[in-house]
Amino acid sequence: MISLVTFDLDGTLALSPRRRGGTASKTAAVRLPSSPWARKRRYVHEKQHWDPDFAKRKVIQQDLMQRLPEMSINMGGATSIDITQKGVDKAYGLKRLRDQSGILLEEMMFIGDAIFLGGNDYPAHQLGLKTVKVKDPDGTLARVGSGREDA
Known about the structure:
The protein has helices at 44-50, 55-67, 90-101, 122-126, 137-146; strands at residues 2-7, 13-17, 29-33, 71-76, 80-85, 109-112, 130-133. By secondary structure, the protein is of the alpha+beta class.
């Protein structure tokens, strides 16, 4: 079990084995902020421009997939990589939402910024939901505020 994943400023990956007792929840996810700006609001501009084409994180993702073949590794947001148990992704959560709320998948719409192969929002597309790709939170607000399905 991996409990800590860190990135140096040059993108070098370090994995630390879990040393404590106990087990992680089946639905537990690890969100990896892969930049030094993850905790500093003043660097929002730099964060948004650190990896706009996902090229840096694709390299990190491939490395993690080799090191952690039993896990699902997906990119999301401006600087994050999600590591989850295989099968525990956004599609899993959306199916649980359907089961508990009674809302049919055909009636749902999913808004996300990583709706592409390898993106953490892609499972919603694979599930067959109507999806809308946005760039940032402002895009989400504009999309939701418009009330239009084609915005």
